Amino acid sequence: MAEKAQNDSQLTAEAAAPRPVLVVDFGAQYAQLIARRVREAHIYSEVIPHTATAAEIEAKNPVALVLSGGPASVYAEDAPSLDPAVFELGLPMFGICYGFQTMARALGGEVSQTGNREYGRTDVTVSGGALHAGLPEAHPVWMSHGDAVTAAPAGFEVTATSAGAPVAAFECAERRMAGVQYHPEVLHSPHGQQVLSRFLTEVAGLEPSWTAANIAEQLIESVREQIGEGRAICGLSGGVDSAVAAALVQRAIGDRLTCVFVDHGLLRAGEREQVETDFASAIGAPLITLDDSEVFLGHLADVTDPETKRKIIGREFIRSFERAVAQALELQGQGGSPAGADAAAGADSAAGADSAAGADSAAGADSASAGSSASAGSVDFLVQGTLYPDVVESGGGAGTATIKSHHNVGGLPDDVEFTLVEPLRLLFKDEVRAVGRELGLPESIVGRHPFPGPGLGIRIVGAVDRERLDTLRAADAIVREEMTAAGLDNSVWQCPVVLLADVRSVGVQGDGRTYGHPIVLRPVSSEDAMTADWTRVPYETLALISNRITNEVPDVNRVVLDITSKPPGTIEWE
């Protein structure tokens, strides 16, 4: 059931998407980044594995192909390859690094093991062509290669060279093909985005129409088509993703949407109050608040494995939404009551520990009455703010490995009684923010730092209980307060605060020995959460945060800073 629900959602998201530029992934660290850069040129893109056949690629009806880089040598015995028939599809094609070499070799050029490796900043010399026209004759790019193209395919013009790459770029306007040995997608290639955009618009002849306004319009129409005359509930988390998803669906089906906010006991300080006021009024949909903290914490007791935590939280979210159906029908039957605290007030009384006690028994199919038909007595659709990086990291992208199960993707139970509506499933975070602004949501919502659906449950390394949550909640509140006071909210993507609950270290406080827990600060800068770097927070701010936490939060005697990029480390610790 979970797989079918997600497949239905995926088909709806794909129906709303225009014909894509397909980024063929040869194992590149930056395949997702290339897809983002294509979208920054206002052209829709998706990532596919290099194992896709020509028929599978053709079935996606792409407008162009971009061949990514990769860590292998084209001469390696198990080197990633591409179906040779792909080169006969007549599609515009752009090769990057390994993809450039694969393209050259397949089209009759020469790739050699010259022994002249280039890694990092390298100067290229350009000589004509559409991609580099008007750029400085010599300019820096970011290289990462051992092999090199030594002869371009017949009919291709060599447009750039470097010390280690006799052919650093080539193009053939007639065949609408081009490529570069360097990485145009990274910021270390200062003219890279311009080169990629020129391929898309000047060589491939594509129209840059992937804009926030068009995205919003297409998604609203797609949701309207999927839900029809049915009714939906939206899991509102307090984050920008679920808020934008709710706003889109509300535009599509009006008062047949009810938002449900589940207090799972894993929230940050003030989170619930903010949702019940700011989010409800901005979205304009009725809001039900369920206090199911006892249920969630009961199931999480003594659980230390991160994947198990995520799956438990994903399962219990679904059970909570099923319990909310009766209240949603009551609100929708009234034509939609005022959003916010008034609508939520009746929900808390009925939705607390008493109603939660039967979470795993009759809460499923009986309360949901979910089926394929839309009627006045059922709520058949569940709206979630799933994003493209969530799908990729949960192994939902073609050819991808599971890095971690997101509670709303790989963490769903098998007996989901709803059809999922995931209008943001193909979007990156910055695109979601742009759509939110297009829909008129306030900056306090669209500019908000990401916060995971599983909440503080995956920021406690170890078992989760109320005492540990109180400790982490207090430390997190201090960090957020001081980061805001220092004016860092716009320069930091997010700053997870992590409690190492199963670790203790010796300290000295009040002239006495302590044996307390460490708190980890994880400030990161990112564009889409696919890659990230640790943010260089001023020492003065770090010192203030450390002093306050160790003085104000009981049982914490040490604050440490995580300076790991992604990769290799994920943004969240669990």
Radius of gyration of CA atoms, rounded to a whole number? 26 Å
Alpha-carbon distance between the two ends: 26 Å
What's the rounded overall pLDDT mean?
85
Structural class: alpha/beta
- Broad shape: globular
**Biggest sheet details:** 9 strands, mixed
Number of helices: 18
Q: Give the tally of β-strands.
A: 23
Low-confidence stretches: 334-375, 395-410
Q: Considering DSSP H and I runs of 4 or more, what fraction of the residues is helical? A: 25-40%
Strand content: 15-25%
> Numbering strands along the chain, what is their spatial order in the largest sheet?
2-1-3-4-11-10-9-6-7
Describe the SSE topology.
Blueprint: H1 2-16, E1 21-25, H2 31-40, E2 45-49, H3 54-59, E3 64-67, E4 93-96, H4 98-106, E5 110-112, E6 118-126, E7 138-145, E8 148-151, E9 157-162, E10 169-172, E11 177-180, H5 192-203, H6 212-227, E12 232-235, H7 240-253, E13 257-263, H8 271-283, E14 287-291, H9 293-300, H10 306-333, H11 341-351, H12 353-356, H13 365-368, E15 381-383, H14 388-393, E16 419-421, H15 429-438, H16 443-446, E17 460-461, H17 466-485, E18 497-500, E19 505-509, E20 512-521, E21 524-526, E22 532-534, H18 539-552, E23 556-561
Describe the structure.
With 574 residues, this protein is an alpha/beta fold. 36% of the residues lie in helices and 19% in strands. The strands form five sheets. The protein has a nine-stranded mixed beta sheet, with helices on both faces. The protein has a five-stranded parallel beta sheet with strand order 14-13-12-15-16, with helices on both faces. A hairpin with a 4-residue loop joins β10 and β11. α1 packs across α6, α9 packs antiparallel against α10 and α17 runs antiparallel to α18. The longest helix has 28 residues.
